[in-house]
Write a structure and sequence with these properties.
It comes from Esox lucius. The chain has 16 helices and 16 strands. It has 479 residues and is α+β, with helices and mostly antiparallel strands. The longest helix is centred in the middle third of the chain and has 23 residues.
């Protein structure tokens, strides 16, 4: 933490303040991680998500890509391995695995971090969750090894409270799905702002290389989004800025037990964009019609989410198309309900291989996001990457390359140049640049190559031969 100092923040507890000028660089990173996994479909060492994984022969819970990943993750797993196995042999726990709070709580207890004692647990304000807390404490006592130092119930309660209020959700290696929960004591001192000057990202490092000299440690990073002045408080956002002020305030109060007083909350900044109506030829759509379509959208979003949870993706698309048809003539392109419909429609359409339609929705989504989010927001970067890939797959190489380059510039700041997502984007940027160059030289040859590759058919060239590196430019879409 050489670039920050701890200070007392009135009304918020403790905070971090920059001690030297920072410009688009990491403030600090923390390692090791106190981390537990929610999913069994990811490697518990490198975080890669895949269907075929090898599970630990002892606890049957931890999963790994291969022996290399298992060896790399054994140091962190060996203590809990025996505890998970023992827990599953006790009374009502037969065949069960303790939840992530209990497993993470045991790691916190074992590390004996003094920083944890200084963090708020808000146990007194969690009256509605006391029943679940008591169950977790009971299961923790079953899970905690008898030969280890025993803890008082108050200490265990404090740890669970700290996890509930300060735990970070962590994503898979691609940054697309939540796979676990982590506690990072130094980062717990960073206060919230709805328009922050930093972001938090998990860098998974590289633990899968056969040669251990190429391994790099997994770490959590606090990254500056721009220039931070000396003495300025370092802040991150605990909630998504895409939500309107009222919803952000409710979420912060319910989960973190404080009232946000940042400038964007006090001024309700951009709320008018998030719930606004469309302007046609300088005339705004009447508020009554905007409110009517907004209420309709709220109902359709609930139906869509139910169909999505049921895995009925064709019904999801039907709902999205029907709703978007009524939304687009009335709602602004920054209205959050329209943005959510575009986002879901593009994701599901891409999955169902309706690539052209998916690409159109991703472009609209990114245009709306760009008017709401900070220009260096990670969600904007990820959405732009999705849009770039969708246009690339649809054969719209010029737009696709431009969006991939834009996403790369954003994620260079939010994720850093060594993050796996940024490295993937760099490869995409080089690939699309090569294809764009080919497109500009001879569009007809480019399109015929693409069509032949998508049909998985061999193709003969009558003109100049292609370089070796160009042969695998196009991939057949997975059904």
């Amino acid at each position: 933490m050489e670039n920050v100092e701890v200070f007392d923040s009135p009304g918020k507890g403790r905070g971090l303040r920059a001690t030297k000028e920072l410009l688009q660089e990491t403030c600090f990173s923390q390692n090791p991680l106190l981390l537990q996994f929610l999913s069994e479909k990811i490697c518990h060492s490198c975080f890669r998500r895949q269907e075929k994984l090898q599970r630990c022969g002892q606890c049957k819970f931890a999963h790994y890509c291969d022996r290399t990943c298992q060896i790399a993750g054994w140091k962190e797993h060996k203590v809990e391995c025996g505890a998970i196995k023992a827990f599953g042999n006790i009374g009502d726990n037969i065949g069960k695995t303790p939840n992530e709070n209990i497993r993470l709580g045991s790691i916190v207890s074992d590390t004996q971090l003094t920083t944890i004692d200084d963090l708020e647990d808000h146990i007194s304000e969690c009256q509605d969750d006391l029943k679940d807390l008591k169950v977790d404490i009971h299961n923790f006592l079953d899970y905690w090894p008898r030969y280890s130092k025993q803890h008082r119930v108050d200490d265990i309660s404090h740890i669970f409270g700290v996890i509930n209020c300060n735990g970070f959700t962590v994503s898979d290696q691609r940054g697309l799905n939540a796979v676990g929960v982590g506690l990072f004591p130094n980062l717990c001192l960073v206060n919230h702002d709805c328009w922050p000057n930093c972001t938090v990202v998990l860098n998974h490092g590289n633990q899968s290389a056969v040669n251990t000299m190429y391994h790099s440690q997994m770490r959590i990073e606090l990254r500056a989004l721009g220039k931070i002045e000396v003495g300025e408080e370092v802040t991150v956002s605990y909630v998504d800025f895409l939500n309107v002020t009222e919803d952000r305030q409710k979420q912060l109060k319910m989960q973190y037990f404080f009232d946000c007083t940042c400038e964007h909350c006090k001024g309700h900044i951009k709320d008018d964009l998030k719930m606004g109506g469309k302007v046609v030829d300088g005339i705004k759509v009447p508020d009554e019609l905007v409110n009517e379509v907004t209420e309709y959208s709220r109902e359709m979003l609930q139906k869509m989410e139910k169909a999505r949870l049921d895995g009925n993706y064709h019904e999801v698309i039907k709902i999205c198309r029907e709703c978007i048809e009524k939304q687009e003539p009335v709602l602004a392109d920054t209205h959050i309900y329209l943005l959510r419909m575009w986002s879901t429609a593009s994701e599901v359409l891409a999955y169902l291989q309706f690539i052209d339609e998916a690409a159109d929705y991703t472009r609209k989504m990114v245009d709306g996001y760009s008017k709401i989010y900070h220009p260096h927001n990670a969600s904007l970067g990820m959405a732009t990457m999705r849009a770039g890939v969708a246009h690339w797959q649809a054969g719209k190489i010029e737009v696709g390359h431009g969006m991939i380059c834009k996403a790369y510039s954003i994620l260079q700041i939010t994720h850093g140049p060594t993050h796996p997502i940024t490295k993937d984007l760099e490869a995409m940027r080089m690939q699309t640049e090569m294809e764009l160059r080919m497109f500009k030289q001879n569009e007809m040859i480019y399109q015929s190559m693409r069509e032949a590759a998508l049909k998985n058919q061999p193709m003969t060239m009558n003109n100049e031969p292609l370089a070796e590196s160009v042969k695998n430019l196009f991939r057949r879409p997975k059904k």
